[in-house]
Task: inverse folding
């Protein structure tokens, strides 16, 4: 007895000319916009008239090693230590807003030196 998925995998292994053209267009677009991730590239391809799925674009970029990593903007999140040499040189704060019904929003803040 054969596996029903074997035929589908074998049929999908052969790339159509349309698939090859899409891959070339994606590769050119990814090289032209190196900071763009799969979402931006997918939207650009859709605007150009390609009926593409974001998962397909992400899979192709992963296969080619062109997938972008997530940006980390906060230095503490990157694991860099803060160099504090004196008091009052670095302050951290956190702001939280709470809805208080009729009174509107209330804001709470905490500071740390």
Result:
């Amino acid at each position: 007895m054969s596996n029903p998925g074997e035929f589908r995998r074998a049929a999908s292994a052969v790339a159509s000319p349309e698939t090859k053209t899409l891959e070339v267009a994606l590769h050119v677009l990814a090289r032209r916009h190196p900071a763009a991730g799969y979402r931006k590239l997918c939207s650009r391809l859709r605007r150009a008239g390609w009926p593409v799925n974001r998962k397909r674009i992400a899979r192709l970029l992963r296969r080619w090693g062109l997938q972008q990593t997530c940006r980390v903007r906060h230095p503490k999140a990157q694991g860099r230590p803060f160099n504090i040499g004196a008091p009052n040189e670095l302050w951290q704060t956190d702001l939280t807003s709470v809805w208080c019904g009729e009174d509107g929003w209330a804001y709470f803040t905490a500071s740390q030196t």
Notes: The first strand starts at residue 92 and ends at 99. The chain is about 40% helix and 15% strand. Residues 72 and 79 are 10 Å apart (CA to CA).
